[in-house]
Specification:
Helix content is about 75%, strand content about 0%. The chain is an all-alpha fold and about 425 residues long. Keywords: Coiled coil, Cytoplasm. This is Leucine zipper putative tumor suppressor 2 homolog isoform X2.
Length: about 425
């Protein structure tokens, strides 16, 4: 016995009962005395003998397909099995004859033909088994389809009976509704006549309602105008009262300021008088001192104390003038001029101060008189304005009283109009009902 081990990338060799002959390999790689290699055989069993799908396709071509298999794609028609087998043999023989030019074809062995027959029988048996199982499945599917069809037919018959019963009921109800509709038509005709009469009355009431509404609108506009005028007058009175209070506070402030200014003026006047008296006394004392100092050593010299006067005095007193003593005399004169105050300039400064104080006093008096006059004018103006405000307030109070009376009358008229409108609306609603 020969055994073979299967490895990846190698073909399987079947053992046989007789010893193979060497050197009888064909050009295509086949040899006698052994089964041809499966991977290297060009025509397969499917091409030679056909497949079960071909048998099923040939079987189903003549018979109608069930509804459950209608979704499958249509199969292409094929030739019968013996024709395909014959065509495969012819194809193989032709291929062998075509290769005879290259190398002579050896005769087939009896072992190869026996194996082929066994394989063909086994293939036919498996094909018939597949066909039988397929027929069983098809019959089961057909039974299920028949059951579902019977069930749907029963349901359809039941639905048809129910629809017929509903139609009979609806026909009876339609007759009843037609009869009631005729009765309702008579009632509607009667109600239409009543509605026309009610509409005529309603139009008359509507015209009356519109006239009353227009009157009410006019009264409301007048009332709004009166209320706006009252609000405006109240605002004016508030503003006038505020201005009166403000002016009163201003008058009080001005009186206080005026009293303070008067007291300040009197104080400044008294202080200025005292200052003037003090300055006058000081001026007299200074004049006396100046007269005493100036006339003590130089009785004959005038106020200038120039060199000419000194020369004249010396000449009258028979003073012998020397050039050596002139420098000493000049230095003495300058010293006296620097130390002693001038009797002519001091009285002039004091008089200027007195004049300035007099001017300030006159200005204060004029300012005081102007302030007094202005205060009296403001006082008179405030009094007149206060009297005018009092008169305006009295007039406004009277007008507000009259306006309030008019508003009350208009409010009563408006309430009466509203009551009449409500009564009209109620009457109209009853007519509509």
């Amino acid at each position: 016995m020969m055994t073979s081990v299967y490895h990846e990338g190698k073909s399987v060799i079947r053992p046989i009962a007789f010893k193979p002959l060497g050197g009888r390999l064909s050009a295509g790689g086949e040899r006698y005395g052994s089964t041809p290699v499966l991977a290297s055989r060009p025509p397969s069993h499917l091409t030679l003998y056909g497949s079960s799908s071909d048998v099923r396709e040939g079987r189903w071509c003549g018979s109608p397909q069930p509804a459950s298999l209608s979704a499958l794609p249509p199969a292409t028609p094929s030739a019968p099995i013996h024709q395909r087998h014959h065509s495969a043999i012819v194809t193989k023989s032709s291929s062998v004859l075509s290769g005879a030019d290259k190398e002579p074809v050896p005769a087939p062995s009896p072992a190869d033909s026996g194996v082929a027959e066994l394989e063909r029988d086994q293939h036919d048996y498996s094909t018939t088994e597949r066909i039988r199982s397929h027929e069983v499945r098809v019959r089961a599917a057909r039974g299920l389809m028949m059951q579902s069809f019977g069930r749907s037919r029963d349901e359809r018959d039941a639905e048809l009976a129910r629809v017929r019963r509903d139609r009979a009921l609806l026909r009876q109800r339609l007759e009843d509704t037609e009869w009631s509709l005729c009765q309702r038509a008579g009632e509607i005709a009667l109600l239409k006549t009543q509605l026309k009469d009610a509409q005529n009355e309603q139009t008359a009431k509507g015209h009356e309602y519109l006239t009353l509404k227009a009157d009410c609108r006019q009264l409301r506009e007048v009332l709004d105008k009166k209320e706006k005028e009252i609000m405006r007058l109240r605002a004016e009175t508030d503003e006038k009262e505020k201005s009166i209070n403000r002016l009163q506070s201003e008058v009080d402030r001005l009186t206080n300021d005026l009293m303070e200014s008067v007291s300040d003026l009197t104080k400044t006047k008294e202080t200025s008088k005292n200052e003037i008296e003090r300055l006058k006394t000081e001026l007299k004392e200074l004049r006396q001192e100046l007269s005493d100092i100036s006339l003590s050593g130089y009785e004959g010299i005038e106020c200038g104390r120039t060199m000419r006067g000194i020369y004249d005095v010396c000449k009258t007193n028979e003073y012998h003038w020397n050039s050596s003593d002139s420098a000493l005399e000049d230095a003495e004169v300058q010293r006296l001029n620097g130390e002693l105050p001038d009797s002519c300039s001091e009285p002039c400064a004091a008089t200027a101060i007195v004049d300035r104080l007099k001017c300030e006093l006159e200005a204060k008096e004029t300012q005081f008189n102007n302030e007094r006059r202005k205060w009296s004018e403001e006082k008179d103006k405030v009094l007149r304005y206060q009297k005018q405000l009092q008169l305006n307030y009295v007039q406004m109070f009277k007008r507000s009283r009259t306006l309030e009376a008019e508003v009350d009358g208009l409010r009563l008229e408006l309430e009466l109009c509203n009551k009449n409108m409500k009564n009209l609306n109620k009457h109209g609603k009853t007519i509509e009902l």
